[in-house]
Write a structure and sequence with these properties.
The complex is a heterodimer. By secondary structure, chain A is mostly helical. Chain A is about 75% helix and about 0% strand. Chain A has 3 helices and no strands. In chain A, helix 1 runs antiparallel to helix 2. Chain B is mostly helical. Chain B has a two-stranded antiparallel ribbon with strand order 1-2. In chain B, strand 1 and strand 2 form a beta hairpin. Classes of the chains: A mainly alpha, B mainly alpha. At the A-B interface, helix 1 of A face helix 25 of B.
């Protein structure tokens, strides 16, 4: 499958994520959009990694060249999981205090 | 002995420092002791030095240290002791000491602090003047030249609470500065063309200069002399300088500082002799000044103003002498003029002192009996300046007149007319002041007393000098051998000697003396009985208003300059420079106020901006074809 497919998919996901962050006010939806962007990047990393590795693998089955990006993906997934747990906790606390998950309420924090 | 030359300016500068710094704590007695003592010490050393030069005659230069060293140009802080400078040393310290002594009584009503300030300035003046005449190069001379200008400013504005006096001080300083610029340019020109400023080297290499260079240098130096020695067109400051205390007028504005220009030209006689054109200009300006200011002096009613214009006129004679190559005559006249003009000013000061600061001669009259010593000395001064033999003024003026005749008989005719006017206005002044009857009321008359001894002694000494001072320069025709001429001959090498038949010389002398005597008799006769008490009319009004030269300068120079200054202040400064500076500030303020609106505090806006900026960057890359090429290369 040509890599342009992956690229287009990743761009689309990323754009959906960006637009979601920009236009939605519901904190949970914004959060999900951020996850979407992270995963779009993950997808790109995996796609490029695979593309790089494919040529070298044909010559040398033992080679690991081009696989580092796949390791990064795991890092990102771990970090994202941590971030999600913290972020969701914040949202829960926010809801407890304000009975709303509208991010525009956050500007009241300064008082 | 000549190695002690540096002591001569050292004492006055020490006096200046002590008096200037300690003026708040010194008593008047101590001030007098320090002020007069330092000058007297310098005078003693000057006498010894003079005798040494007279007997051994060698010129020598004493370098104290290197003042400026830049590339091949080396300027030493050096003193030159020769016949000319030692003669001037005597005049400056001698007359200077007498005037210091006189001041100690004249200024006694000032409080102690200002009294010490006065003597500090006076000592600084003597120091600067000594530097001026002792310097072995034009730069040291320039230091003194500027120094005397500064002291002149300080002393004219000595009573600084009076605005008019301050104005006069500023006028003197600015006029002098115009001249100084010429002097400075001449020095630069010399450095450029010859690479040296020391007298001996300049005069030795002067023949390398082109005619144009030498004319430009001498003309620029003469501009300096015009300012310092009050010649047309820069003379108007000198009469206004009478705002200072009278002893200052005697010392600075009659005897010493104003003769600096003559000293400088006499010193540079080698250069001047190379330029016919400059010599003509010097002679013509000198003659014009002599005549012009003599006409003004005829109608002045302020005792000091008459003497001031008389000074300008006598300086004009000196320049005439320089211009026709009679350098000795000019220096001789500087010397005799220093005696009789200092005498006249001090005697006038004595009158002013006795009359409690009355300076208008219309309110005087009949002071002959009340002030006998002042009267007698003033009379001797008047006779001396009028050129009656055998007083000093006769010999020096006659020498200049004879040289003028040898150069061009028309100069002589005009100069004799000027001499007649001199005799006339001096005796108008004398008759109005001392003869006739006193024109104040009897109560004022009872307060008039002769001045104290410390004022009359300098008067007597100067009167004796005015009478016998001319004997050092008795010409051959009268049986003398002109000692001054022989004395100065090694310095004034370019002296133009003129030989006339004895008959002609007798005739010239006879005519000038006769005319002067007639003018004197006429003036005494006219003014002792009926002095001019009313304001003058017709031509007299023009003369008493000084030909309206001050008004002319005001209208054509001062006012336009002021207007330009106002224009610069209002337009260039306020709407140009200020507007630019303020504009930058305002623009930044306005700009930041606008940009601040972007920061809303909403996270959404920031993200939006971030994304937009990112998209923009991507678009730029694409336009460069970078991403496009990257992607196409990829596949």
């Amino acid at each position: 499958m040509p890599i342009s497919y992956y690229l287009i998919l990743a761009f689309t996901l990323f754009t959906i994520g960006v637009v979601g962050v920009l236009v939605r006010r519901n904190a949970i939806i914004v959060f999900m959009s951020i996850e979407l962007m992270l995963n779009a990047v993950n997808l790109l990393l995996v796609a490029f990694s695979k593309m790089h590795h494919a040529g070298v693998y044909a010559a040398n089955k033992a080679s690991t060249v081009g696989t580092d990006a796949q390791l990064f993906v795991f890092f990102i997934m771990v970090v994202a999981a941590v971030e999600v747990s913290v972020g969701l906790a914040i949202i829960v606390m926010l809801y407890r205090n304000t009975h709303s998950v509208d991010i525009n309420f956050l500007n009241r924090l300064k008082n | 002995m000549n190695t002690l030359v540096y002591l001569i300016p050292l004492f006055p500068v020490i006096g200046f420092l002590i008096l200037g710094l300690g003026r708040k704590s010194l008593s008047k007695t101590l001030t007098i002791f320090l002020g007069c003592g330092t000058i007297f010490t310098s005078f003693i050393i000057s006498v010894v030095l003079f005798l040494n030069v007279k007997n051994h005659g060698a010129m020598d230069v004493h370098s104290l240290f290197t003042f400026i060293q830049s590339g091949t140009l080396k300027i030493d802080f050096a003193f030159q002791v020769d016949q000319l400078s030692s003669l001037f040393l005597l005049i400056i310290t001698g007359v200077g000491f007498l005037i210091h002594l006189y001041s100690s009584a004249y200024m006694h009503e000032e409080n102690a602090e200002h009294f010490a300030r006065y003597f500090a300035y006076l000592n600084l003046f003597i120091f600067s003047m000594l530097l001026l005449v002792l310097g072995a190069n034009y730069v040291i001379m320039f230091i003194g030249w500027e120094g005397v200008g500064l002291c002149s400013y300080l002393l004219i504005g000595y009573w600084f609470k009076n605005d008019n006096y301050n104005y006069a001080a500023k006028k003197a300083f600015i006029m002098n500065r115009i001249g100084d610029l010429g002097f400075l340019l001449a020095v630069f020109w010399l450095v450029n063309k010859l690479g040296t400023v020391s007298y001996s080297e300049v005069f030795a290499t002067a023949h390398q200069l082109s005619t144009f260079d030498v004319t430009a240098i001498t003309m620029l130096l003469f501009v300096g002399a015009m300012g310092k020695s009050a010649q047309i067109p820069l003379y108007t400051w000198l009469p206004d300088a009478m705002a200072g205390p009278t002893p200052v007028s005697a010392l600075i504005h009659a005897a010493t500082m104003v003769t600096a220009g003559i000293y400088m030209i006499a010193r540079s006689n080698v250069l001047y002799n190379m330029s016919e054109f400059t010599m003509h200009v010097v002679a013509i300006i000198g003659l014009a000044t002599a005549l012009f200011s003599a006409t003004i002096a005829i109608k002045q009613n302020d005792i000091k103003k008459v003497l001031a214009y008389s000074t300008v006129s006598q300086l004009g004679y000196m320049f005439l002498g320089l211009g026709v190559g009679a350098y000795t005559g000019a220096v001789f006249h500087v010397m005799t003029h220093a005696f009789f003009k200092a005498l006249l000013f001090l005697a006038a000061g004595s009158v002013i002192h006795a009359l409690h600061h009355e300076q208008d001669i219309r309110n005087m009259g009949g002071l002959k009996k009340k002030l006998p010593i002042t009267h007698l000395t003033f009379l001797l001064g008047c006779i001396a300046i009028s050129g009656i033999p055998p007083l000093s003024g006769f010999f020096s003026k006659d020498e200049i007149l004879a040289a003028a005749y040898a150069h061009n008989p028309i100069y002589w005719v005009l100069a004799v007319v000027g001499a007649a006017m001199t005799a006339f206005y001096m005796f108008r002044l004398y008759a109005t002041t001392f003869l006739g009857t006193y024109r104040g009321n009897s109560e004022q008359a009872s307060h008039i007393n002769e001045s104290p001894k410390s004022m009359t002694i300098p008067l007597i000494v100067l009167a004796i000098l005015s009478v016998v001072g001319g004997l050092v320069g008795v010409p051959e025709i009268l049986g003398g051998n002109h000692q001054l001429h022989h004395f100065l001959s090694s310095v004034l090498v370019s002296e133009k000697t003129h030989h006339m038949p004895h008959n002609t010389e007798w005739m010239l002398m006879g005519i000038s003396v006769t005319i002067a005597v007639i003018a004197i008799l006429f003036a005494v006769n006219k003014f002792s009985k009926k002095p001019e008490l009313n304001d003058a009319e017709g031509l007299g009004k023009i003369l008493s208003n000084k030909w309206y030269v001050d008004e002319l300068y005001d209208k054509f120079i001062v006012h336009p300059l002021n207007n330009i200054a106002v224009f610069f202040k209002n337009v260039i400064e306020k709407s140009g420079i200020d507007a630019a500076v303020n504009g930058v500030g305002k623009f930044v303020l306005y700009g930041s106020r606008q940009i601040r609106l972007i920061q809303t505090g909403q996270v959404g806006t920031y993200i939006l901006l971030m994304v937009l900026a990112f998209v923009l960057m991507v678009l730029i890359w694409i336009n460069d074809g970078y991403i496009y090429r990257f992607i196409t290369n990829l596949f």
